[in-house]
Amino acid sequence: MKLPVVLLICSCVGVFEFCGASGVNLEAQTTHAPASSKISTTLSVHGNQLTIGQDMMVTLTVKNISNQNIPLRTAPHYYHVYVEGAIGGEVEKTRYHHRLRGEFLPGESELRGGGVTFEIQPGESGTKDFDLTQYYKLQEAGKYRVYIECDDESGTWVRSNTVIFELKAPN
Prior knowledge:
Number of domains: 1
Order of helices and strands: HEEEEEHEEEEE
Radius of gyration: 17 Å
Structural class: mainly beta
Shape: globular
Number of strands: 10
Number of helices: 2
Helix content: 10-25%
Largest sheet: 5 strands, mixed
């Protein structure tokens, strides 16, 4: 009778990892696309130093590594954005980010739909920009790490590289 308990524990661990649990060390997580994935991802920050109170843009490049056309979707629920602060742990999320993750306050609803789909040819790439201030409350100067996971349409989340950026106080 130990099998049901083991399955329950594995299920809980899977949900814990999927939700981007606070305190997860970003460097310890793999940055390679699964062998079965049709995409690879690369993340870049618009400048090494960003300023508090301004847009904090990053670009995710999604490359089609399959031999068939694949969709690049722009709706935000196809992506998981993660930012870890200098002292470790995930930075405080915005209300918008909580809702994208299904973490609702009473009376709130799920954020789904919208967006556009583009086709990416085999060997080609597409990009999507993200303003980190839409997802996290980035209000303290210091160094941060960011990565993004992208749904590859097969139920697999493909993780980008981790990028380090410095957030500075406004002049």
